[in-house]
Design brief:
Number of helices: 18
Radius of gyration: 35 Å
Largest sheet: 6 strands, mixed
Order of helices and strands: HHHHHHHHHEEEHEEHEHHHHEHEEEHH
Structural class: alpha/beta
CATH topology of the largest domain: ABC transporter transmembrane region fold
CATH superfamily of the largest domain: ABC transporter type 1, transmembrane domain
Strand order of the largest sheet: 6-7-8-3-9-10
């Protein structure tokens, strides 16, 4: 029977902060200004297009007035028709030139910003990536990248052209007619812009709520699909659907409020435009009746109104889209401002070449300040030697490898390589010198060849195959229909745990680093494969500084020194033989595992 317990509410979205509009624009501006020549050419083409566009109604006015005169003046409208057609074509020509000049600017700005965000995310600490939600993060980057293109396009192709055209029209109305037309136009525009800005700003929080719930729903869906097997194990498909639907209901409510407020905004804008157009046409018609204006003047004013109010009507949509784009870009730029917990020191140095010595000196560490994991841990791994760390789960063994990689900085004490504090070394240099076979191997959704070659991307195919042979993986790969080109699936789900582990071993052997870490490297292998690979691992460790983290003691018998950890402290140390003679914690663990192995061999 299914559970009927109340569905837990989804986590609340983080508080919505004020949109830092000008900060976002200032951050974006340098990416555009590096193509200043193209930008200036595009601006010139834009102004040319608008001058031609505004000139069309003026020519049309003279055509109407010419046709209203004596028939002998028929040659004048013919010349004006040629000019009219030329101006129409010039508008399209300059518009397309603007597109040609500016196309690469937009795309390269999007590309460079997306690349910078991608690099920054990889530079952030492991703590950030353990706490993030992949679905929401990917959606923020996707929306932000798309919104950069929207913001640039709307600004250059809508707002700026409208402002240029507005300036030209107001100038013509002022100098050719009277100030009354200018006053009506300015009042209408001011009322329209004020109303649009006020209502659109009010809608920003509603739009943000839509985005927050969209990201949260996407995160929930991706998280559930990534854990597809777990959902199936516990028959929780309907439970996951209800959780997803609850988040989507919140999105639905926010999206509905957004649409209703949009309708209110559109109605208000149309009312202002209708009043402005009516007032302008009334004044123009009065001028014709009084004899102060010709029929051509009436046509000119009407044409100007159409040219102004059609893009002005669209300007409301543009403003809303720009504010939405700024909101989306702000979220992506916030990723860039995320603090790098682990950063290279200004005077950081490269790790020297050659044999490397690792020293842990009174190291203390805790993932949280309230809970210390390691207490004054100290040991040395001499060049070419192997040190093994054993102990029960939760003793802090795997934390040692994370600290050596400098995913975190120690809370106290020091970790040194060849006497150099890790914090004074460049992280890229440090990590290039370390190879690890982790306990939980996650593979890229690509071919087996790609996943092995990832250890050293410039390696040849023969080197990749040699590494696969050393990891006892080559024969298995050759048995597959597509051999080394076989896809492993997302996170390597098409492979068994042992097969994934051997891919990880091959990848690390291909990297060929001076420091090796085996973190439960054979935990997912059967006994026969484990014995076959154990010899290869010991062969690979020769001449290298090696840290072995293990649960099965049979895999560390030949280590130069074995450290036994308990509750974050080293409670015993020595060789395998010496620790057995000491008859302490290690000896008890050995006896227990021997009993388990003997019991396993007696099973049919």
């Amino acid at each position: 029977m299914r559970r009927t317990s109340a569905l837990p509410r989804p986590p609340a979205a983080p508080p919505l902060t004020a949109t830092h509009t000008w900060l976002t624009i200032r951050t974006l501006f340098p990416y555009l200004w590096q193509y200043r020549l193209r930008v200036l050419l595009a601006m010139g083409a834009l102004i040319g297009a608008k001058v031609a566009n505004v000139s069309v109604p003026v020519v049309f006015k003279h055509m109407i007035d010419g046709l209203s005169g004596p028939q002998q003046l028929l040659a004048l409208p013919v010349l004006l028709l040629v000019l009219y057609g030329s101006l129409r074509f010039s508008t399209a020509l300059f518009t397309e030139l603007r597109e040609i000049f500016f196309a690469r600017v937009t795309q390269q700005a999007v590309r460079h910003i997306a690349l910078q965000v991608f690099r920054h995310l990889h530079a952030l600490s492991l703590r950030f990536h353990l706490e993030r939600q992949t679905g929401g993060l990917s959606r923020d980057i996707e929306r932000g990248s798309r919104s950069i293109s929207s913001l640039i396009s709307y600004s250059l192709y809508s707002i700026l052209p409208t402002l240029v055209e507005l300036s030209l029209v107001l100038g013509i109305l002022f100098f050719q007619y009277d100030v009354g037309f200018v006053i009506i136009t300015v009042i209408s525009l001011a009322a329209y812009i004020l109303f649009t800005v006020k209502v659109s700003n009010w809608r920003i929080d509603i739009r943000r709520a839509v985005n927050e719930n969209d990201s949260a729903a996407n995160s929930r869906a991706i998280d559930s699909l990534i854990n597809y097997e777990t959902v199936k194990y516990f028959n929780n498909e309907e439970y996951e659907a209800r959780r997803y639907d609850e988040q989507m209901k919140q999105w639905e409510d926010a999206a509905t409020r957004s649409q209703l407020s949009l309708s209110f905004l559109n109605l208000g804008q149309q009312a202002i435009i209708a009043l402005g157009v009516t007032a302008m046409m009334w004044r123009a018609a009065s001028g014709v009746v009084d004899g102060r204006m010709s029929i051509g003047d009436l046509v000119l004013v009407n044409a100007f109104l159409i040219q102004l109010y059609i893009p002005l009507n669209f300007l409301g949509v543009v403003y809303r889209e720009i504010r939405q784009s700024l909101t989306d870009i702000e979220r992506m730029f916030n990723l860039l401002s995320t603090h790098r917990e682990i950063a290279d020191a200004p005077d950081a140095r490269d790790l020297p070449a050659g044999a490397l010595r690792v020293d842990f000196e009174a190291v203390r560490f805790g993932y949280d300040k309230e809970r210390t994991i390691l207490h004054d841990v100290g040991f040395c791994i001499a060049p070419g030697k192997t040190v093994a760390v054993v102990g029960h789960s939760g003793a802090g063994k795997s934390t040692l490898s994370r600290l050596l990689y400098r995913f975190y900085d120690v809370s106290g004490g020091t970790i040194r390589i060849n006497g150099e504090d890790l914090r004074q070394l460049k992280q890229a240099s440090l990590r290039a010198a370390i190879g690890i076979v982790p306990q939980d191997t996650v593979l890229f959704n690509d071919s087996i060849f790609y996943n092995i070659q990832y250890g050293r991307p410039e390696a040849s195919r023969d080197e990749v195959i040699a590494a696969a042979r050393a990891a006892q993986l080559h024969d298995f790969i050759e048995s597959l229909p597509q051999k080394y080109d076989s896809k492993v699936g997302e996170r390597g789900l098409k492979l068994s745990g042992g097969e994934k582990q051997r891919v990880a071993i091959a990848r690390t052997l291909l990297k060929d680093p001076p420091i090796l870490i085996f973190d439960e490297a054979t935990s997912a292998l059967d006994s026969q494969t484990e014995k076959a690979i154990q010899g290869q691992l010991e062969q690979a460790a020769r001449g290298r500084t090696t840290l072995v983290i293990a649960h099965r003691l049979s895999t560390v018998m030949n280590a130069d020194e074995i450290l036994v950890m308990g509750e974050g402290r080293i409670i015993e140390r020595g060789t395998h033989g010496a620790l057995l003679e000491a008859d302490g914690a290690y000896a008890r663990m050995w006896a227990l595992q021997q009993q388990e192995d003997n019991a396993a061999t007696l099973l049919p």
